[in-house]
Design goal:
The strands form two sheets. The protein has a seven-stranded mixed sheet, sandwiched between helices. The protein contains six helices and nine strands, in the order H-E-E-H-H-E-H-E-E-E-E-H-E-H-E. The chain has about 190 residues and is an alpha/beta fold. Helix 5 links the parallel strand 7 and strand 8. The chain has one domain: 3-Layer(aba) Sandwich (Rossmann fold). One of its GO terms (molecular function) is AMP binding. It is found in: Cytoplasm. Belongs to the purine/pyrimidine phosphoribosyltransferase family. Catalyzes a salvage reaction resulting in the formation of AMP, that is energically less costly than de novo synthesis. Pfam families: Pribosyltran (PF00156).
């Protein structure tokens, strides 16, 4: 068995994670982080682990992805004394915005950031989200930030769903998963 990179966070997730069979469709086992986020000790350990990653990646700013990435990203930014960029779903921000559309398995989606009011040029941003699945949202967020001049320093997520190609879509960009999908790596 490998030594976990984040033993306290892994233990907290082992203790609080809820597994839901056949959601959102038959054959899928959904890993529900909601109980971990509601548990003060577990939430703290997750944030500490993500903050360590962001610090190692040289974050100057944290990018939190709509919606659970907001919760995690805000807490990580606070822990590190940094600001947070809320990367929103289409239509949630007043204009002007910069937007990035991306494909989903079942259609299209869009992410946005304000076009005014904050200077992201050459700022090192670490993207924080709850789950890496197909990678579409993280890739789109990275493209969006690069279009406004930011540097994506890395990606940090709590969970990864294997077999959906998300890791491969991120390419060479640094990625850390707090709770690896393979139990031997926990």
């Amino acid at each position: 068995m490998a030594t976990p990179q984040f033993p306290e966070a892994v233990a907290a997730l082992d203790r609080t994670m809820r597994y839901v069979k056949d959601f959102p469709e038959p054959g899928v086992i959904f890993q529900d982080l909601t109980p971990a986020l509601a548990d003060a000790r577990a939430f703290h350990e997750i944030v500490v682990a993500l903050a360590r990653v962001a610090r190692e990646y040289g974050a100057e700013l944290i990018g939190g992805l709509d919606a659970r990435g907001f919760l995690l990203g805000s807490a990580v930014a606070y822990e590190l004394g940094l600001g947070v960029v809320a990367i929103r779903k289409k239509g949630k921000l007043p204009p002007p915005v910069v937007r990035e559309e991306y494909a989903l398995e079942y259609g299209k989606a869009c992410l946005e950031v304000p076009a005014e009011g904050m200077d992201l040029a050459v700022r090192r941003v670490v993207l924080i989200d709850d789950v890496l699945a197909t990678g579409g949202t993280l890739v789109a967020a990275g493209s969006l930030l690069e279009r406004v001049g930011a540097v994506v320093a890395g990606h940090a997520v709590v969970l990864e769903v294997p077999g959906l190609g998300g890791r491969e879509k991120l390419g060479d960009g640094p990625l850390t998963v707090v709770y690896p999908p393979n139990p031997e790596d926990r």
